[in-house]
Amino acid sequence: MNCKSLPRIAIDPLKAKEAVALAYRNLESRYPELDLESYAAFSKTGDRVSYEEPYFQRRNLLLSFAIAQWLQPRPEFLRRVEEGIDLLLAESSWCLPAHNTYVRDAPALPVPDPDRPVIDLFAAETGATLAIIQTLVSLDRPLQERLETELEKRIKVPYCSTHFWWMGNGDEPMCNWSPWCTSNVLLVFLLTGGALDGRYLSDKAIYTLQCFLKDLGEDGGYPEGVEYWTHAALPLVVSLALLKEMGCEEAEKLESSAKVQSLLDFPLSMHAGGPWYLNWGDCSAKAKVGDVRILWSGRFFPCEENLTTDGAHDGLIRYLSLGTYQRHSETQPPFPYYHYPSLGLSVWHKEGWDLGVRAGSNGFSHQHNDLGSLILYRKGKPWLVDAGVETYTGKTFSPERYTIWTMRSPWHNTVNPQGGEQKSDGKAQVTRSDVRGFEGIFDEAYPQGWKWRRAFSIDRKISVKDTCPQDSVLTLISQTKPEIEGRRIRYPGLGVIRFLEPVAAILEEIPVTDTRLRLAWEGSLWRLLVTGGPFSWVIEPTDGR
Fold this sequence. Notes:
The protein is α+β, with helices and mostly antiparallel strands. It has 14 helices and 17 strands. It has helices spanning 13-26, 36-45, 49-71, 75-90, 121-136, 141-161, 177-192, 198-213, 225-230, 233-245, 249-256, 258-270, 292-296, 315-320, and strands spanning 337-340, 345-350, 353-358, 374-378, 381-384, 415-417, 429-434, 437-441, 453-458, 462-467, 472-478, 483-485, 488-491, 495-499, 504-511, 524-532, 535-541. The strands form three sheets. An eight-stranded antiparallel beta sheet has the order 7-8-9-10-17-14-13-12, with no helix packed on it. The protein has a five-stranded antiparallel beta sheet with strand order 1-2-3-4-5, with no helix packed on it. Helix 7 (177-192) runs parallel beside helix 10 (233-245).
């Protein structure tokens, strides 16, 4: 096994010119500093940004010089490449502070142990990026040898000698880490060569990918949402392509399986027009879904004008971004109705509506307590929305996760008891889902004894019936500020929500101050709290259709 070539691409001259110009603009930029004090800050305060931001800026800057040196060799570019590689090789760890642990879900250790490297998402990505750079750029022999030594120590040896949780272990649940780490580790091995038996490597990688796929339904629904689909399905595509280059027959079988093919189509059904996607859990409504890896694979993709093509700290993405690809003109979901039984997820695209509801289980990776929440768009405009998730901190993936407001059911389009909310291990049951509408039971999503059933029909208007106790609270979250007019709630430019029984409603403003949330929402979100129950309500568009 001694493959040292990257996938072939047809370089776009304009993109190449822009890449070189970017490197020239960056020539005087300094590589950011990283130190153990900022590394340890995560364990002390839960702050991820102070270390991660300069960490990724280093890699981004290095890639800009490496790409330019490959396209248009210049001494000044090479000098900055060597400087950047020196800095990365001197880092105590390539693993992020939040991931610095040897036991799944255990608290992160405050400082890394250089003698026991942890392969997390970005240690693997850093290894792959350096392997790509040394493939593109001719380095002096001493630096090349140091780089190869560090890749051996930090990626190759740990991968072969240590079991990291994301590699899979029988029935243990996996997530996007499995294909994401695997694709980058494979790149390291394939681009740097070595004496390792290729069959051992392919068998180990295939096992991990199978462990990942076992948790997905045959319908191809992705439980972590469309944004994390990018960091799962696309690395899966890369992993299978690399394994096929190694002659792995099992990779051919996996790639052609109905499950994988359905998985690759999943974002199409979630697209709500323009930059918008139906989102649950940690996914953003303006999800950065997909990148040039999907174009490289020749796959159709919705909303292709928004695919990530530059600025990435991922070496493979930056390299592939220089290519020319055939794009597709179709941008709308081709079917009016999608149902994913494995997730309890139903989606409608009809009569100008883009509507979705999830009625599976809480508690999976990156999910919120949002069972039964309606997400609604009208002709590409958000109406009833999911806020998404704030900037990650130490609390985000800890026992305190469900104290964060964006994770809790009263901040989703759900019904809750007065002062109560869904459980993090709650479950729901779909009793009917078809092109005309939906019925579901959400009793098991709440503390014992409280009952809620939601049913709706969808046509030119949407008629919703929430069967629940009288002292319930219906929450409706919107970007548009609603106007309360008795039983009618007017959403300017969209339409009205009309209640059939008397209700009491109050409006709360949610200023959007978090950097991550502001990527989707400007100004404020609005939370309408409607008390009463049971609730019968009708959503009617302004345009009458």
